[in-house]
Amino acid sequence: MIDFIKLNKRLSEAEVRSLKESIDFYSTFNTATGEEVSLSPNGKRMLSHLLAWDRNMKIKLYSCGWCEVSGSIHKYFNDGKHNFNQFSKKDLINTLRLMEDKLDLDLMEFKISGLEFGVNIQPPISSEDIIDYSLMYKGRPFESKYHNDEGNYKQVELCQYKVKLYDKRLHYEAQGYEVGNETLRFELKYNVMKSINCLGIYYLRDLTERIDCLKEPLINAWDNVLLFDPTINKNVKEEKKLKYNNVKFWNDIAKKNKRSYRYHLKKLKEITDNYSCGIQAQTKDIMMVRLDALV
């Protein structure tokens, strides 16, 4: 369920010494001056820090003792290689213990400043179809994206979080993995923690104790996806199907007339309920069963 996570804490001098003894840190220098410098991926100077890697997890350590740990905890569970399998609450706790042993730190005291969680499921129809027919989220159109680590996916970005949909099997089988069944990933990625804090989750310990609280926002987010059901049958006029399967139509009325947007959304729901196999509802049921099993 949990994937990317970003943690931070100001360490004591004893914790800094212990961490440095547990893992190798590296820094970069200006070869002309010998000055220690830290650069962002685009070459801009950053606050100087030491950098270490444990599998796929990145550890930054600043001179003041500030420590940041970030990366996919799900991939860490799989030796830093992939995250297409299931990752339960029990797996999360065991993986965190393993990481604590490696770093010689009490990670439970670290504050969460970024969190990504979601669900991997075998959908009722192909992942590609569900992704293609997912048009809008809360009145905003999905955008097609590409990332070296995640492949092609669809995303909507809001103020506090992003909503993402992608085909895990397609991405990882292209890398040579045997994934097997269709694997659709639906997830939320929070960069602003206000909504997560409202669930009583501030520190990593809170997450391990209250992880079940994340099921509701994830399911609610799926309910807010505008998915045109490709199984809508011939009883619905082709003209209406073409209109409701057009993201430009939805985006235009969302911008111009919220009342009209809600009206047509209601009409699409009536059509879906009466003349389709209910793919979004089926997918929701599969998600709920999987989430219950994970937490």
What does this structure look like?
The protein is 39% helix and 28% strand. It has helices at residues 13-22, 73-77, 89-103, 127-133, 168-173, 194-197, 204-210, 215-223, 238-244, 247-256, 258-275, 279-294; strands spanning 2-10, 28-29, 36-39, 45-46, 49-54, 57-62, 66-72, 111-121, 134-137, 140-141, 143-147, 151-157, 161-167, 184-190, 225-227. The mean pLDDT is 94. With 295 residues, the chain is of the alpha+beta class. The strands form 3 sheets. It has a 9-stranded antiparallel β-sheet. Strands 2-3-4 form a 3-stranded antiparallel β-sheet, with no helix packed on it. A 3-stranded antiparallel β-sheet has the order 10-9-15. The chain has one domain. It is elongated and about 70 Å long.
Layout of secondary structure:
Layout: E1 2-10, H1 13-22, E2 28-29, E3 36-39, E4 45-46, E5 49-54, E6 57-62, E7 66-72, H2 73-77, H3 89-103, E8 111-121, H4 127-133, E9 134-137, E10 140-141, E11 143-147, E12 151-157, E13 161-167, H5 168-173, E14 184-190, H6 194-197, H7 204-210, H8 215-223, E15 225-227, H9 238-244, H10 247-256, H11 258-275, H12 279-294
Antiparallel strand pairs: 1-7, 1-8, 2-3, 3-4, 5-6, 6-7, 8-14, 9-10, 9-15, 11-12, 12-13, 13-14
Helix pairs in contact: 8-12
